[in-house]
Amino acid sequence: MSAIRRHAAAAYPQECCGALLGRADGRSRLVTAAWPLANTSQDDRQRRFTIGPRDYLNVEARALDEGVSLLGFYHSHPDAAAEPSQYDLLHAWPNIDYIIVSVVRAAPADVTCWRLRDDRVAFAREEIQWRPES
Question: Residue 38: left (phi > 0), alpha (psi -120 to 50), or beta?
Answer without folding.
Answer: beta
